[in-house]
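Below is a filled-in request sheet from our internal design queue. Each sheet records the structural input a requester submitted and the sequence that came back. We keep these sheets so that new team members can see what a complete request looks like end to end.

REQUESTER: design group, bay 2
PRIORITY: normal
MODE: inverse folding
CHAIN LENGTH: 396
BACKBONE (tokenized):
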């Protein structure tokens, strides 16, 4: 049950939001000693956080003239006081979405930086076993307001209920769990590979992106190359055109193995297919002392932590000193701000793991967004205009 909000709290929330909206720094500084930078006005029809309010009131940047001075300092002040960079308003917009829509680039960059800091800190806390929920006391509240997977600070019975909710969610959407996905029924339908929950696992509008990945990773014939995740075989077909000496393919889904068989991949010279999850296959390749000139990673139903493990545990062991590593950069691609934050977070994490990253911008096909191509898919996983293609090499 949501906690009762007193009249005093509502008044304070209104005053904080109003001071943020007016970019009234002196008032806001005083008010933030009494209340949070994340207050919501429960009586407002269009609920909005102080950060949303501060950005919305800047209006559209016209003729390259962006908000400056007090507006930017207000955003800074709210972020310094813990304003949540990816909080959603009723229009399903984060503060970064609003800044992006209004063309307020300076403010947008501030939110990207705050997002990167927050995500790096969150990952560090998780690695240390700190949930970040320690100040939340009411277990009921945790159940109601947090995403299922984070609801762990509760008693045994509740854990069970929560686990059932998680399982149900996975059943409803197999892309939430790699093992569930790998057991699910796939459908190849023309230009799309679907999973059992109607998610598009792969679509052929990504062909140019796949071809460019192969080009950037394989500068000459005769190299040893590995691709993880065969999908529709688009990147593997592109890899073949660069005449590799060895072409390893790791694939975990039995139906994709079947398709590889039907399409004659097992008989192609120099192609070595490893059936199984990369988590099981790669330790064996490391043990065998396999060294590769190029590695490409594009799996499905795996989270950012899996990618981090892949790059920091395995790529560093398998890649030749002059080798190149590429990966599908699709995290957060249904929201520009999330894509920009995760592009930066991955660059920082990869640098920590020992890699430099070079980015190349590729415009996605015009007319993709909202087009018929997405018909039958659960949701469009790509809504932004530019794909940032990464090429990683060992830090020099
Ligand atoms: C997005 S598709 C790859 C598309 C591919 N790049 C192409 O050009 O068509 C992802 C593939 O990774 C496979 N996969 C998912 N998780 C895996 C894992 N843990 N190990 C190996 N393969 C996995 C999926 O079955 C699927 O075939």
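RETURNED SEQUENCE:
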């Amino acid at each position: 049950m949501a906690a009762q909000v007193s009249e005093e709290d509502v008044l304070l929330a209104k005053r904080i939001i109003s001071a943020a909206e007016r970019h009234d720094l002196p008032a806001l500084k005083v008010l933030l000693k009494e209340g949070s930078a994340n207050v919501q006005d429960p009586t407002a029809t269009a609920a909005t956080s102080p950060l949303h309010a501060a950005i919305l009131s800047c209006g559209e940047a016209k003729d390259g003239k962006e908000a400056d001075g007090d507006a930017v300092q207000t955003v800074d002040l709210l972020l310094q006081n813990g304003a949540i960079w990816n909080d959603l308003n009723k229009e399903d917009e984060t503060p970064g979405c609003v800044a992006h829509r209004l063309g307020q680039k300076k403010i947008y960059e501030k939110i990207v930086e705050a997002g990167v800091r927050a995500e790096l800190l969150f990952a560090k806390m998780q690695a240390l076993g700190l949930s970040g929920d320690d100040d939340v006391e009411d277990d009921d509240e945790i159940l109601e307001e947090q995403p299922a997977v984070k609801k762990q600070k509760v008693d045994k019975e509740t854990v069970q209920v929560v686990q059932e909710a998680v399982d149900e969610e996975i059943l409803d959407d197999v892309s939430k769990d790699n093992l569930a996905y790998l057991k699910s029924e796939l459908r190849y339908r023309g230009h799309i590979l679907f999973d059992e929950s109607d998610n598009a696992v792969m679509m052929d509008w990504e062909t140019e992106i796949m071809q460019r990945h192969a080009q950037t990773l394989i500068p000459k014939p005769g190299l040893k190359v590995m691709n993880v995740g065969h999908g529709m075989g688009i990147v593997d077909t592109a890899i073949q055109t660069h005449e590799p000496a060895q072409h390893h393919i790791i694939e975990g889904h039995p139906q994709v193995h079947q398709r590889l068989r039907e399409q004659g991949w097992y008989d192609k010279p120099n192609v070595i297919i490893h059936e199984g999850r990369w988590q099981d296959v790669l330790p064996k390749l490391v043990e065998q002392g396999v060294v590769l000139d190029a590695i490409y990673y594009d799996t499905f139903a795996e989270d950012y932590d899996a990618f981090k493990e892949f790059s920091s545990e395995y790529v560093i062991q398998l890649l030749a000193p002059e080798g190149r590593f590429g990966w599908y950069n699709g995290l957060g691609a249904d929201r520009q701000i999330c894509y920009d934050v995760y592009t930066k977070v991955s660059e920082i994490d990869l640098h920590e793991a020992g890699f430099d990253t070079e980015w190349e911008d590729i415009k996605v096909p015009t007319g993709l967004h909202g087009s018929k191509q997405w018909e039958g898919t659960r949701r469009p996983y790509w809504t932004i205009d530019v794909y940032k293609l990464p090429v990683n090499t060992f830090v020099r």
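SHEET NOTES:
- The pocket of S-adenosylmethionine is lined by residues 178, 201-202, 210, 228-235, 250-253, 256, 277-279, 298-302 (CB under 6 Å).
- Confidence is low (pLDDT under 50) at residues 135-162.
FILED BY: M.R.
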